[in-house]
Recover the amino acids of this structure.
C-alpha cells in the first residue's frame, strides 16, 4: 500500500476477482491503528470485514514499531514510515521505484503516483489551496498539521460518500483497505502531536508556532468529530486528540521528573545529604519546567483554548507524587525521613515554589503528593527514629555534664547566677525538634513535644542520681543545677503549656534534692557548734558567733541561686538553726538552777536576737520563727510563776505543731513543783486540742518546727509529770 504524492479521485471499484489480483502481499499486512477507535463501535455486518479490520490494526502496529497495547508509532519516525507508504516495493525485493516513476504490473491495486492513476488515499481531484506535489504524509512530516488534517478530512468525507453511494458493495475489502489508510494517516498525525509535546520542554526550546498549530488541529478534529456516529462507522469516530495530548503531556512530565536527580539516586540511599541533593535537583527541574510552561507554552496554546497550564500542572504534580512514593519506600533513618517530609510540606508545598508571586501551584485543588496512608507511615517511622535520637541526645547531654564535673572547675557566674549549659542544651534540643516538626504538621509537632517531655522526664532522675553521686558536689555546682532545673521548670512549662506540665513534679523533686544536699553541707559544718550550747562555757562566752559566720558564708552562695529557690533554702537554713538551738535547750547537757537559770534565760534571749538579726540581714522572710526561742527563754526566766501559763499560750498559739512531750521538757527546765506543773500541763493540753481543731492554723500552712525536735524520755520528765 502506498500513498500518492497528490490527492486523486477514487477509481471505480474493482470486482472481487480484480481486487484479489491487484492486491499485494504487503498490502495484506498493513493496517491503521485502532487505538483511537472506541471499543463500542459496531462491526460491519458483511462477512469477514471485522477480521480484516483486526488484521489491519495488528499490521499497522507492527509497521509503526508498536507492540499491541503500546502507544502508536515512534513519534517523528512515523512520518518517514508514512512517506515510505507512497513507494511500492517489488515482489522480488528489488529496489523500489522512485517517486512518480512507472510501476510494474505487480504494484498495489488502486494506487498510482500520478493524477490519472488510482490511489488508496485519494478520493477526488486536488482540492483548492493544496500545495502542489505534497501529500498528507509530507504535510505531517513538515508539521503542517492543520493542512494535513484538512486534506485527511476531505479524504475521509469522500470515502464515506462513496460508501454511502454503494460503490464498495462488491468490494468490501477495498473499502476496508482505503479506510485503514485513512486511519493510519490519523495515527501518524497523532504521533506527530505527541512528538511535538515531547520536544516542548527539551533543550531545543519552545516552538510557539508548532504548539499553536497543534492546538488548532486538536480543536479542528473535535469540531469535525463531535460525537461517535450512530451507525458505528469507525471513520467518523472522535479521535480524542485532546486526551492524547494530555497523555503526551503526562508522559513528558514523567520523563522530565525521572531524569531530574538521576545522578544522585545512588547518593540518596547513602544518607540525608544525598536525598536532599536529589530533591533539590528535582525541585529545581520542576520549577524551571513549570515556569517555562507558564511563560512560554501556555501563551502558545491559549489562542486555541487548550488549558496547557492546568494539564502540565496536573502532569508534573502526578509525576512528582510518583517519584516521592518511590523515595518514601526507600527512606531510612530519622534524617532521611525528615528531609522527605520537609521537602513535601515546606518546599514543594510553599506558595513561592515557582519563585515568583504571580506563579503559584495552587491554581486548582490538587491531590496530596503522598497518600494519607504513606504520609502517616512516614510520620510514624520518623517519630520512632526521633524518639531514639532524642533519648541519645539526652544521654550525650549527661555525658557533657559529667565531663564538666570531672574537670573540678567552679561553674561560671552569668548575670549574677551560677550557670551550667544544661538548661540551654535541653532548650535547644527541644526547640530544634519541635520547630522542625511544627514546620511539617501540627500533629507531628504535638507528637514531638510528647516525645521530648517523656525523654526529659526519664533524664531528670538519672541526672540527679549521677550528680549527687559524683565528686563535684559543692555549693556552686549545686546552685548551678538548681538554677538549671528552675529555668527548665519556668520556661518550658510557660512555652509549651499542657505538654510539659507532667514535668513539674520531677523538676521540683530534683530541685528539692539539690536544696537538701546544699543544706546537708551547712548542717555538717555547724552541727558540732551546737554542742557547746547550754553549758557553763556558753553562759560566759559568745559561742554562737562562729555558727553565724558559717551561716553567712553559706548564704553568700545563695546569692547566686535563682531568687525563689534561694529564699526557700535560706528559710530552711533559718528553720534548721532555730530548731537545732531549741533541741539543745530541751535536752541540755547541764541543768541550771537559781542565778544560772536566769542567766541562761537572758543568754537565750540574746542568742535569739542574734539569730533573728543575722537571718533578717541575709533576707530571710521566715519571720514566724522569731517567737520560738524567746518564748522558751521567758518560761525559763519568768519570776512571776502565774505568767508562765501566758507564755505557754503564746508558744502554743505560734507553733501548733508542739506536742505534750515538748511542754513537759520545757516545764522540766523550770522545776515549778508537781501541782503547778500539773495545772500548766492540763492548760497546755486544752490549748493543743483547740489548736488542732482550729482551721487555717499555721501548721496547716506548712510551718513545722517542734514536730521535728526529738525529746527523749528522762527521769526529770517523769518527775515533772508526778
Amino acid at each position: 500500500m502506498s500513498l500518492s504524492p497528490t490527492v486523486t479521485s477514487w477509481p471505480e471499484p474493482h470486482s472481487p476477482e480484480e481486487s484479489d489480483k491487484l492486491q499485494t502481499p504487503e498490502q495484506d499486512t498493513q493496517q491503521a491503528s485502532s487505538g483511537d477507535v472506541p471499543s463500542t463501535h459496531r462491526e460491519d455486518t458483511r462477512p469477514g470485514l471485522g477480521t480484516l479490520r483486526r488484521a489491519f490494526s495488528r499490521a499497522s502496529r507492527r509497521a509503526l514499531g508498536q507492540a499491541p497495547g503500546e502507544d502508536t508509532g515512534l513519534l517523528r519516525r512515523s512520518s518517514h514510515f508514512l512517506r515510505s507508504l507512497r513507494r511500492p516495493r517489488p515482489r522480488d525485493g528489488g529496489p523500489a521505484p522512485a517517486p512518480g516513476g512507472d510501476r510494474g504490473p505487480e504494484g498495489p491495486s488502486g494506487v498510482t503516483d500520478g493524477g490519472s492513476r488510482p490511489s488508496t488515499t485519494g478520493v477526488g481531484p486536488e482540492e483548492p489551496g493544496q500545495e502542489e506535489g505534497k501529500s498528507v504524509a509530507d504535510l505531517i512530516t513538515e508539521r503542517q498539521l492543520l493542512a494535513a488534517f484538512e486534506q485527511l478530512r476531505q479524504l475521509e468525507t469522500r470515502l464515506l460518500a462513496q460508501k454511502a453511494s454503494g460503490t464498495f458493495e462488491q468490494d468490501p475489502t477495498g473499502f476496508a483497505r482505503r479506510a485503514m489508510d485513512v486511519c493510519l494517516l490519523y495515527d501518524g498525525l497523532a504521533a506527530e502531536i505527541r512528538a511535538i509535546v515531547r520536544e516542548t520542554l527539551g533543550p531545543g526550546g519552545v516552538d510557539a508556532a508548532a504548539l499553536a498549530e497543534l492546538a488548532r488541529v486538536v480543536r479542528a478534529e473535535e469540531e469535525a468529530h463531535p460525537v461517535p456516529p450512530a451507525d458505528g462507522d469507525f471513520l467518523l469516530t472522535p479521535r480524542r486528540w485532546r486526551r492524547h495530548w494530555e497523555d503526551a503531556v503526562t508522559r513528558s512530565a514523567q520523563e522530565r521528573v525521572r531524569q531530574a536527580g538521576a545522578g544522585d539516586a545512588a547518593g540518596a540511599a547513602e544518607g540525608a545529604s544525598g536525598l536532599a541533593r536529589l530533591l533539590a535537583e528535582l525541585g529545581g527541574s520542576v520549577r524551571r519546567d513549570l515556569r517555562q510552561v507558564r511563560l512560554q507554552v501556555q501563551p502558545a496554546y491559549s489562542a486555541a483554548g487548550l488549558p496547557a497550564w492546568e494539564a502540565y500542572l496536573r502532569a508534573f504534580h502526578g509525576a512528582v507524587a510518583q517519584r516521592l512514593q518511590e523515595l518514601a519506600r526507600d527512606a531510612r533513618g530519622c534524617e532521611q525521613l525528615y528531609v522527605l517530609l520537609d521537602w513535601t510540606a515546606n518546599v514543594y508545598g510553599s506558595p513561592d515554589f515557582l519563585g515568583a508571586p504571580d506563579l503559584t501551584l495552587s491554581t486548582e485543588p490538587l491531590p496530596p503528593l503522598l497518600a494519607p496512608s504513606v504520609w502517616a507511615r512516614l510520620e510514624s517511622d520518623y517519630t520512632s527514629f526521633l524518639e531514639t535520637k532524642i533519648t541519645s541526645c539526652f544521654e550525650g547531654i549527661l555525658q557533657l555534664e559529667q565531663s564538666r564535673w570531672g574537670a573540678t572547675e567552679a561553674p561560671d557566674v552569668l548575670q549574677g547566677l551560677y550557670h551550667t549549659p544544661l538548661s540551654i542544651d535541653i532548650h535547644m534540643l527541644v526547640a530544634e525538634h519541635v520547630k522542625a516538626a511544627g514546620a511539617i504538621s501540627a500533629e507531628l509537632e504535638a507528637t514531638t513535644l510528647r516525645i521530648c517531655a517523656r525523654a526529659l522526664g526519664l533524664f531528670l532522675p538519672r541526672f540527679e542520681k549521677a550528680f549527687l553521686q559524683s565528686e563535684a558536689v559543692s555549693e556552686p555546682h549545686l546552685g548551678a543545677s538548681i538554677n538549671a532545673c528552675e529555668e527548665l521548670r519556668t520556661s518550658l512549662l510557660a512555652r509549651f503549656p499542657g505538654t510539659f506540665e507532667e514535668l513539674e513534679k520531677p523538676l521540683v523533686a530534683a530541685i528539692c534534692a539539690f536544696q537538701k544536699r546544699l543544706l546537708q553541707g551547712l548542717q555538717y559544718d555547724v552541727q558540732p557548734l551546737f554542742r557547746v550550747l547550754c553549758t557553763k562555757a556558753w553562759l560566759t562566752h559568745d559561742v554562737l558567733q562562729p555558727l553565724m559566720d558559717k551561716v553567712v558564708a553559706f548564704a553568700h552562695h545563695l546569692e547566686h541561686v535563682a531568687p525563689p529557690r534561694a529564699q526557700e533554702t535560706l528559710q530552711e537554713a533559718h528553720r534548721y538553726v532555730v530548731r537545732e538551738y531549741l533541741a539543745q535547750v530541751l535536752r541540755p547537757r547541764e541543768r541550771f538552777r537559781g542565778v544560772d537559770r536566769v542567766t541562761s534565760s537572758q543568754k537565750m534571749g540574746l542568742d535569739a536576737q542574734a539569730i533573728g538579726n543575722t537571718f533578717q540581714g541575709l533576707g530571710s522572710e521566715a519571720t514566724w520563727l522569731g517567737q520560738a526561742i524567746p518564748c522558751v527563754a521567758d518560761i525559763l526566766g519568768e519570776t512571776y510563776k502565774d505568767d508562765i501559763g501566758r507564755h505557754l499560750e503564746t508558744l502554743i498559739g505560734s507553733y501548733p505543731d508542739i506536742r505534750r512531750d515538748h511542754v513537759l521538757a520545757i516545764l522540766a527546765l523550770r522545776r515549778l513543783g508537781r501541782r503547778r506543773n500539773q495545772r500548766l500541763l492540763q492548760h497546755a493540753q486544752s490549748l493543743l486540742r483547740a489548736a488542732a481543731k482550729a482551721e487555717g492554723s499555721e501548721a496547716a500552712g506548712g510551718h513545722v518546727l517542734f514536730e521535728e525536735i526529738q525529746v527523749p524520755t528522762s527521769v526529770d520528765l517523769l518527775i515533772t509529770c508526778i
Observations:
- Residues 8 and 115 are 5 Å apart (CA to CA).
- The radius of gyration is 51 Å.
- The beta strands are 412-414, 417-419.
